[in-house]
Design a protein that fits this description.
This protein is about 5% helix and about 40% strand. By secondary structure, it is mostly beta strands. Strands 3-11-10-5-8 form a 5-stranded mixed sheet, with no helix packed on it. The structure holds copper (II) ion.
C-alpha cells in the first residue's frame, strides 16, 4: 500500500542502466542532458563539491537565459539541460552528482542524501568556453491571453493514510475526484486558444508531477509551498512538479494539433492508479 501511495522507489539508482557509474572528465565545461526516468522518485540534484550547476534547458528546449543553482529538483518525466564546469580541479579529484535531502516531499520523498554518479578528473585542458548570456528567444505568453481557466484538484485530500472517504469511495489517486476512463472526454478544448490550467495540491500530502500530452506550456505561478518558480521553469515545459500545499498555474497555447490527449501525474504508480484524464482538442 505504501508503494502505491508514494510510488515505487527501489533501492538502487541507475544512470543509463548502470548502477554506481563513473566517467572520466577533463577540466572543462560538460553538458549533461538529464531525464528523470524513475517511477516516482524526485531528485534534488547537487554536486558534492558544492559547485554551481548552470541550468540552460528543460523539457521544451533551451531557456532564454542560463541560471546557476547549487541544487535543483527534478521530478519523474522532467528534463534538465545542465552545464558543469570541472576546471580548477586537480587530476584524480572525484566529484559526485548526488541527490540531497529536501523538505515537504510527503511521507517518502527527500528523506535521504544519496550518490547518483561520479566524475573523475582525468586530464587538464584549457577551456575558453563561456556560457552565453542569451540562449534562445522564449517569448512569454501573457496570462491575459487566456480564454479559459480550468482548475484541477489533485490533493486527494479526502483520502487520508489509507482511510477511505466517508462516502465509501476507495482510496485512489484522482484528478477532480475522477479516475481515468479511456471512453470519457473530461475537457473539451478549442484549437488555437490559450488556456490557464491550475493544479491545486494545496491540501495534498504527496508530490505530483503533472504532465500534458500534445503541448508545451509555460509556468505562470506557484503559490503555497515553495511559493516561487525554480530555475528550470522559465521556458517551455510539458511536466510541472506540484509539491504538497502548492497550487501551480500554467498557460497552455493549444495550437491546431487536433485530437484526443491524456494528461496525468507522472508518478507511475499514481497514473496507473487512475490519476489521468483526457482532453479533446477540436
Ligand atoms: Cu502523483
Amino acid at each position: 500500500m505504501e508503494e502505491v501511495m508514494a510510488g515505487y522507489m527501489g533501492e538502487s539508482i541507475i544512470v543509463n542502466g548502470v548502477y554506481s557509474p563513473y566517467t572520466e572528465v577533463a577540466t572543462r565545461f560538460y553538458r549533461l542532458r538529464i531525464l528523470n526516468g524513475s517511477n516516482a522518485r524526485v531528485y534534488n540534484l547537487a554536486l558534492s563539491n558544492n559547485a554551481d550547476m548552470v541550468i540552460i534547458g528543460n523539457d521544451g528546449g533551451l531557456l532564454k537565459t542560463p541560471s546557476s543553482v547549487k541544487e535543483i529538483l527534478i521530478a519523474p518525466g522532467e528534463r534538465l539541460d545542465v552545464l558543469i564546469n570541472f576546471s580548477g580541479n586537480a587530476i584524480g579529484t572525484e566529484i559526485l552528482l548526488t541527490s540531497n535531502e529536501f523538505g515537504n516531499g510527503g511521507a517518502a520523498q527527500g528523506k535521504q542524501r544519496f550518490k547518483i554518479m561520479k566524475f573523475k578528473i582525468a586530464s587538464i585542458v584549457t577551456d575558453i568556453f563561456t556560457v552565453p548570456a542569451i540562449l534562445s528567444n522564449v517569448t512569454a505568453v501573457s496570462a491575459s491571453s487566456a480564454v479559459k481557466v480550468r482548475t484541477f484538484e489533485i490533493s486527494n485530500a479526502m483520502e487520508h493514510h489509507g482511510v477511505p472517504m466517508n462516502n465509501g469511495m476507495q482510496m485512489r489517486h484522482r484528478i477532480n475526484g475522477k479516475l481515468y476512463d479511456s471512453n470519457r472526454i473530461d475537457e473539451a478544448v478549442a484549437a488555437n486558444t490559450n488556456e490557464i490550467w491550475v493544479f491545486d495540491n494545496s491540501k495534498g500530502e504527496e508530490p505530483h508531477p503533472m504532465h500534458l500530452h500534445g503541448v508545451f506550456f509555460q509556468v505562470l505561478q506557484r503559490s503555497g509551498g515553495r511559493n516561487n518558480l525554480i530555475a528550470s521553469e522559465t521556458g517551455w515545459k510539458d511536466t510541472v512538479l506540484v509539491m504538497p500545499s502548492e497550487t501551480v498555474s500554467v498557460i497552455v497555447p493549444f495550437e491546431n494539433n487536433k485530437g484526443k490527449f491524456v494528461f496525468h501525474c507522472h508518478n507511475l504508480e499514481h497514473e496507473d492508479d487512475g490519476m489521468m484524464l483526457q482532453y479533446q482538442l477540436s
